[in-house]
Design brief:
Blueprint lengths: L6 E2 H8 L3 H9 L7 E2 L5 E3 L2 H14 L4 H8 L5 H32 L3 H11 L3 H16 L11 H4 L10 H14 L2 H13 L16 H8 L1 H5 L8
Helix pairs in contact: 3-4, 5-6, 5-9, 7-10
Length: 235
């Protein structure tokens, strides 16, 4: 090409830090094709090949697949659009890795059995809808038939835990513990008895005397954390 210096594949390797084998591979894939060939048949590349190879190396380092890289290099896909999609995919992987880390940490700390580890893993990888179903099942078992009482207004909403979109390992472990507790038959029965105490009709001859509001009692349990300024979404 007139006005353009052609480089051998060895020159490109020295300029980009890539191996000759890698450059040949990208050339064969059509991502960085040679500009010309020497009379002896050796590949020759223009100056723009250096910039292309550096872009390819960066995109590969960020985890993009070769078909997507080729479309970016050929300007068939906007780089910003590809970066946004890749960032979203990585965020999902990070969330999953955090939950796996929490499970393994809990297993190591508790000395869990294989059965307990399997249970914790299943709890930690529940989807948001599955988590709500688990909490809803617990609340139905505890407050089923009692929702008409005005003192229970908003309890289901208040007592349905929400795991943050990007939870810490401590938050995931706390969710695992809560999920296990929600499955405990003895705990369910104890909370059910507590709830029934607040709605048992006087016709049954039950005279409990003055009673504190149930949610006030729950707030008191969280009093120290509230006083210390610890937020509900904290670890």
């Amino acid at each position: 090409m007139d006005g353009d210096t052609l480089h051998s594949i060895g020159d490109l390797a020295r300029r980009t830090g890539l191996t000759v084998k890698a450059i040949r591979f990208y050339a064969d894939c059509g991502i960085v094709p040679p500009t010309d060939r020497s009379p002896a048949g050796y590949r020759r590349y223009g100056t723009e090949a250096v910039a292309r190879l550096e872009l390819v190396r960066t995109l590969r380092g960020l985890g993009l697949d070769l078909p997507t890289i080729r479309r970016v290099v050929e300007q068939e896909l906007p780089l910003a659009e590809v970066a946004a999609a890749q960032a979203e995919a990585l965020a999902a992987q990070i969330r999953l890795l955090r939950r796996r880390h929490a499970v393994l940490t809990a297993v190591a700390r508790r000395g869990s059995t294989p059965e307990e580890m399997d249970l914790m893993h299943r709890f930690a990888t529940l989807t948001e809808d599955e988590r709500r179903l688990l909490a809803g099942d617990f609340l139905d078992a505890v407050f089923g038939g009692l929702h008409a009482d005005p003192r229970f207004a908003g309890i289901a909403r208040s007592l349905t835990p929400e795991l943050p979109e990007n939870p810490t390992a401590e938050q995931v472990e706390a969710w695992i513990e809560l999920a296990e507790l929600c499955q405990d038959a003895d705990f369910r029965a104890a909370v059910r008895r507590l709830a029934e105490r607040y709605v048992r009709p006087a016709a049954e001859g039950y005279r409990p005397g003055p009673r504190r509001d149930l949610m006030a009692a729950v707030r008191d349990l969280a009093g120290p954390a509230l006083a210390a300024g610890v937020g509900p979404a904290s670890a």
